[in-house]
Specification:
heterodimer, A: mainly alpha, elongated, B: mainly alpha, Cytochrome C Oxidase, Chain A, two-stranded antiparallel sheet, 18 helices, 2 strands, 72% helix
């Protein structure tokens, strides 16, 4: 197999790999939300409740 | 000592805001002069023949581009960073003397660098790289400036109270990291004086790359300067200011994350479209085209998210000029991120390359999307920084319509001019002889160049109204209570 053919296969599989990662990420976001593991939408409140005295959306843990 | 409740400290954000307004006016004035020069060449010596060296198109062009991009927009980005950063991380600059010192040093070194840049550009000292014209001593200074901003970003993140970083923070971080990388690689240069043992000026340099490689690095930089100075930080602004002003949380936080990673991955590969039909390898040109088209998806991911954030609240577009600015900005974002990929398709590019259509595209993005979003962000922040309402709502509304008309005149005239140019350049008879000479196109384009200059002038008039409204807001507008500053910005008649 010459180098150009190898490059073409490499390109195809790399693209397929990236597409799989992208769809995997979409699946991860939506399934985590659905299963109740993580509520991503609550982070939208970071912009709305942003007064310094507003309750924290998610407190930074002390041991971090 | 008096025990005062903790408040956000906008000292540094205010400094950058003043600079954004001032440089915005100056940079756009330069742009308008250039536009009139294109239509009427006698404007090249508008201040007389003795000063023509400083007022001609060649000198002013870099002053215009660099001052609107790195003066107006970058100052606004930093003003919003020092505002939004504190608020979404729920930490005050007043809590860290160190970060306050870094913030002020960031501002004053930036001002010093800006002054040196203006002088060096006016003297014609340039490395001749578009949007990266500065010689090596200035490039080195910019590194220091950027590191200070980095300390500021990660320092504030380090002392935050909120665990999660809001989506806007991700975009600011992307801006910081990407521009650091772009700046260093594109400005890799050799100071000739030191290498040659004293030939030429000490500040002169040549690029580390040669020929096509230099062009490739330049446009990898150039296009990503658009991505990471004129797009990601503006998206950061829209994710914060539109939800905050409208009182609606972003429509889909998950979509914002997805669009972020999509944009990060795709944008970096699209710069090759600036070099279509040049000497760079064909596969690289094709890749630039393909990635440019794919770029529609993450761009529209953010823009649609903005539009859907307004779901059920569209009456606010009618009632608030500030929301008008932001919705129009998102609309222009959708529009120019569709137009750009179309221009990057090889067959379209064969017509569009080097024509005024490209200039039109840049300006519907820069004036309609970036300019409007920045103006909205500054309008939103001013009452919260100065505890005064916006001086005049009607002035803001008038400004909006004048500037919208300006942008429309600008890009429509450039569409017609660009496509006319492209068609005339390649028209030929049956023997392959070119049908027109260059001067024929110049004659035909004159009316469109005049319309463009009028459009630009209208936008500048709007900027002057903006500056006046902001000045009055800062100094003599009605004082407001904290309770009036929750969502919709308070405005006087």
């Amino acid at each position: 197999m010459d180098i150009a053919t190898l490059q073409a296969y490499g390109f195809f599989f790399f693209t397929a790999f990236l597409v799989a990662i992208l769809y995997g990420y979409i699946y991860h976001l939506y399934s985590s939300q659905k299963k109740g593991k993580r509520d991503y939408e609550k982070y939208g409140n970071l912009a709305l409740n942003d007064d310094i005295n507003d309750p924290l959306v998610e407190e930074k843990s002390r041991d971090l | 000592m008096e025990n005062r409740p903790l408040e956000y400290d906008y000292t540094v954000a205010k400094l950058f805001m003043y600079n954004a307004i001032f440089v915005g006016l100056a940079g756009m004035l330069a742009g308008v002069v250039l536009a009139w020069q294109m239509a009427f060449p006698q404007f090249n010596y508008v201040l007389g023949m003795d000063l023509a060296e400083y007022t001609n198109f060649g000198r002013l062009r870099a002053i215009h581009t660099d001052s609107v991009i790195y003066g107006f927009v970058l100052s606004a980005i930093w003003s919003t960073w020092y505002y939004v950063g504190q608020r979404v991380l729920k930490v005050s600059m007043a809590e860290s003397k160190f970060l306050m010192f870094i913030g002020k040093a960031h501002f004053w070194i930036y001002i010093a660098a800006s002054l040196i840049i203006v002088v060096s550009m006016q003297l014609g000292i340039t490395s001749s790289k578009e949007y990266s014209e500065f010689e090596w001593p200035i490039d080195a200074g910019i590194v220091i400036l950027w590191v200070l901003w980095g300390i500021s970003i990660f320092g504030l993140i380090g002392i935050r109270r909120e665990k999660a970083l809001y989506i806007s923070i991700w975009y600011y971080i992307a801006t910081f990291l990407a521009v650091a990388m772009l700046h260093i690689f594109n400005n890799a240069e050799i100071p000739t004086y030191f290498l040659t043992g004293g030939i030429g000026n000490w500040y002169h340099s040549v690029s580390m790359y040669a020929g096509t490689n230099d062009a490739l690095v330049q446009w990898w930089f150039g296009h990503n300067a658009v991505a990471f100075v004129l797009t990601t930080p503006i998206v950061a602004m829209s994710y914060y200011f539109l939800p905050k002003e409208s009182g609606q949380a972003v429509y889909s936080y998950k979509l914002s994350l997805l669009a972020f990673w999509g944009l990060m991955f795709v944008y970096l590969w699209a710069g090759g479209h600036h070099l279509l039909f040049s000497t760079v390898p064909d596969w690289m040109q094709t890749m630039g085209s393909v990635f440019s088209v794919v770029l529609i998806l993450p761009s529209w991911g953010s823009a649609i998210n903005m539009m859907l954030t307004m779901k059920g609240e569209w009456q606010q577009v009618a009632s608030s000029p500030l929301i008008k600015f932001m919705v129009m900005a998102s609309t222009f974002y959708m529009f120019s991120t569709l137009e750009g990929p179309i221009q990057a398709i090889k067959s379209v590019n064969a017509l569009a390359h080097f024509t005024d259509w490209i200039v039109g595209h840049v300006h519907d993005g820069a004036l309609g999307w970036v300019g409007f979003m920045v103006i909205a962000a500054l309008y939103h922040m001013a009452p919260r920084m100065f505890k005064r309402e916006i001086y005049s709502k009607s002035l803001m509304t008038t400004q909006f319509w004048i500037q919208t008309l300006g942008v429309i005149l600008y890009f429509t005239s450039m569409w017609i001019a660009g496509i006319t140019q492209g068609m005339m350049w390649r028209a030929h008879d049956e023997f392959g002889n070119l049908a027109y000479s260059f001067i024929d196109t110049v004659t035909v384009l004159h009316p469109y160049y005049t319309i463009r200059a009028i459009g630009g002038t209208l936008y500048l008039v709007g900027m002057a109204m903006f500056a006046y409204n902001m000045y009055k807001t800062m100094t003599s507008s009605r004082v407001v209570e904290e309770s009036e500053l929750q969502n919709a910005t308070p405005m006087g008649a």
